[in-house]
Amino acid sequence: MRLSTKGKNMMKNFKLSSLTVAIALICQANSSFAADKIQQEVSKDRVEKIVVTGTFSGKSVAKEDASYAISSFSEDDIKKLAPKSTAELFQAVPGIWAESSGGVSGANVFVRGFPGGGDAPFLTVQLQGAPIFPPPTLSFLENSTLFRLDETVSFMEALRGGPNPVVSNGQPGLTTNFLLKEGSEETEGLVKYSTSDYNLQRVDGVVSGQLAEDLYFMAGGYIKSSPGVRDAGFNAEEGKQFTVNITKKFDNGKFNVFTRQTDDHGVWYLPAPINVSTVDNQYNQIGTNNRQATVKFGPNGEAINVDFGQGRGWNGSVSGGSLDLTLDNGWGIVDRFIYTKGDADTYGLVPDGDPVMLSTVADSGSTASGAVTGTEYAGSTVVQQIGRWVVKKQIEAFTNDLAITKTFDNSTITAGYYHSTFSANDWWSIGNQAYHVVESGGEMLTGIDCNDNQDSCGWNYDINSVGDGSTQAFYVAASHEITDSLSMDAGIRNENHQIEYTVDEGLDGVISKAVSYDESAIAWTLGANWMFADSQGIFARISDGSKMPFFDDFRDNFDAYQSGEDLIKDVTQYELGYKLVADDYELYATTFFNEVKGDTFVAVPGAPAEVLTNQAYGLEVDFNYFTDSGFTLNLNSTIQQTEITESPTNKGNEAQRQPGWQVRMTPSYDIDFSNGMYATLYGTVSAVGDRFANNENTVTLDGYTKVDLGVIVNLTEEVQMQLAVSNLTDENALTEGDPRDSLSSNGRYILPRTIDFNVSYQF
C-alpha cells in the first residue's frame, strides 16, 4: 500500500550539590590554570571547533582529536538554520532523522537506524553538560520538549554513539549538549523583535557582564505569542522563558550556577486525512469551535472540561551548575549537577481511522448538526473520528555527575560517580473519539449517538500512574598516547537501576500493575585515534551499552516483566571514522554498524508489544568549505540500511520511519559594502528518500526536497536584520503516517511555507 499527499495527484506518497559548592569554596589551589577553551573561536573565514561533550574527564578537546563522531553548532550556525523548535535543529546533525512537524514540542527523533515508533527513545538533551531529564523518553514526553532555544544559548554539540554508553546517563544513542553564554568584564547585551507572516510576536533579550572581580553574569529570555504556523484562530502558541547564569572564575578553574524558568506551549499538530481535497499542509484540527470539550472518564462517568488549545508544552524549571578545577600534580575535578521540576502536559485532537461520509454514521441516516454553531451539515459532508486526548504529567529529577581525573606523562585516568533520581506522575484519558467535520477547526457533531457516549465511538484508555526511579553508576576510563599521533582510550560503567511504579488502569482506584525493579548492567567502550598526517586521521570505536527500562516500558510489557524479563535493551555499536582538516575545508566521515536487541513497539496503549532485534549500518558525512571571498558551504548526508533481524511477524523488513538516505546542503555568502554594512545570504536544501511508515513495510512515505532561504543584514555594528523563508516551494510532503493505524489514510505534513523577520540591537 502507498499513501500520498494532495498536490501532485491528490495522493503523494506517505515516508540534556551542595557538595560541589563546598568544594568550590575550598579548592582555590595555587596551581596555574590552563583555561578550558569550551567556546568556539569564531573568525570570519573559519571556525575552530572545540568540543566538551563525550570526554571522560569533562575537559575540552579539539574536534579533530576526538575519537568519536560529534557535530557542533555555534550561535551563528543556529541563527542561519532558523529552527522553529529545538528538534528542528537536530535535522542538521548527520545520522539523525528528526520529525519536527508536530509544532513547538512533540517531535520524533531517530538515531542511526535505531528502532523506534515515535517520540525520541535514544535522545538525551543536556544543559551545561548534565541531562535535563535522565529518562530519554516517556510516553508523551521526549527530551526536546523540555528545552527552548533563545539568545542565552551559546552553542550546541551533538554526540552520536561513541562513549555515550559510559558517560552521563549512559544512553547509547544521541546526546545533545547546550551551553549557555557567560559574562565577561565588558557589559553587553542584545534586544531582538521577531514577527512573521503568521503573526508571530516575540521579544528576546540578553545582557551579560561583571558583578565583581572574577564574578560574571548572564541573564536573558523571551516572551512570545502567535496563532501558530497553522492558524488556529486564536493565540495557540504562547510562551515565556527567563535564564540566569552566574560564573565564578578561579586561578585554576571556575564554578557555575544557572536557573531557567520556562512556560511555553503550542498546539500539537497531528496526522491529517490525506485523501480529502480540502486538506493540505495548512490543515489544523484545532480551532475556536472545538478547542473546548468535555471528557468523561472512570467507571462513574466523571467529567472534566478541557481546553485543547493548550496543546503540548513545558511549564517548569531547570536549575544546576558545575565545578571545574585543575589541581596540583595532574589532578582535576569536574562535577555537574541539575534539578528539573514541572508539568509537561499534552492536550490533542487525534484522528482515528479513515474519513467517511456523514450519511453513513448519522442517526438519521443523512444529516447532523454542529455542536457549537448549530449548522446543519449535509450527508455528503466528510467527517472523521477525532480522539480527545488528555495527558497530565508531573516530572521531577535530580542528577549529579562527579569525575576525578589524574594525568600522567602520556596517560589520563578518570573515575566517576553518576547518581540520579527521577519521578513521573501521570493522569491520562485518551481515546475519547467523536465524529468531527473534516475542515480546519472542524466542530463536533450532534445527531451521532456515539459522540455523546462515554464509551466513545472507538476506544478509551484511562490511567493514573506514579513512578519513582533512581540510577547510580560508577565508571572508570583511561586514555594513553602511544605515540604523538596514536592514542587509545577505554571506559567501563557499572550501573544499577531501580524503579517503583504503580498503575491504576480505568481510574477506578484499583492498582492493576505494580513494579518493584532492581537490575544492574555493565557498559563499555574502546576507541583509538590515529593522526597519520598533519591534517588527516582515522578513529575506530566499539561499544556495548544498555537502554534501561523506564516507567512506560513496564506498563507496555507488564506480562514480560512478570515472567522475569529484565526489559533491558542491549545496544552494540561499531564505528570507523575519517577526518581531514585543511586551511579551506574539513571533512568528517563516519561509518557505523549497530544492533539493538529487545526493542519493543506498541501501536496503541494497552495493545500487545512487538519485541524485535534491529540492525543498521551506514555512512555519515560532514563537509565544510571556506573561502577568503566570503563563500562557505556545509554538506552533511547520511546513507543507511536497516533490517529487523528478529520479530514474530516482521523479520527481514526495514525499520519503520527510517530513511535510506538524506542530504542537507547549506551554502552561505558574505557581502561587504563600502559604507560599513555587510550582509550574509544563505540557504538550505534538504532532501530525504523514501521511508516505510510501519514495520510491516506495507505503507511507503515518499521522499521530498525542502528549500529554505535567508538573508542577514548588518546595518551597523549594533543593528542587524534577518529575513528567513522556510519551505520556499511550499512542499506538501509527509513526515509520518498514522502510528496508531498504519493502514488508515492519515499522515503528518511538514510545516508549510513561512516568512520570519527579526531586527536586533546589540550593545
If you had to describe this structure to a student in words, what would you say it looks like?
With 763 residues, this protein is mostly beta strands. The chain has one domain: TonB-dependent receptor, beta-barrel domain (Maltoporin, Chain A), CATH 2.40.170. 4% of the residues lie in helices and 55% in strands. It is built from five helices and 47 strands. It has a 22-stranded antiparallel beta barrel. A hairpin with a 3-residue loop joins strand 27 and strand 28 (411-431). The chain is globular and about 85 Å long. 52% of the residues are buried.
Pick out its properties.
763 residues; mainly beta; 5-stranded mixed β-sheet; 4% helix; globular; disordered N terminus
In short:
This protein has 763 residues and is mostly beta strands. The chain has 5 helices and 47 strands.
CATH class: Mainly Beta
Question: Major sheet, described briefly?
Answer: 22 strands, antiparallel, barrel
- Under the CATH scheme, the architecture is Beta Barrel
Low-confidence region ranges: 3-47
Which homologous superfamily in CATH is the superfamily?
A: TonB-dependent receptor, beta-barrel domain
Estimated radius of gyration: 26 Å
Query: How many strands?
Result: 47
Count of spatially separate domains = 1
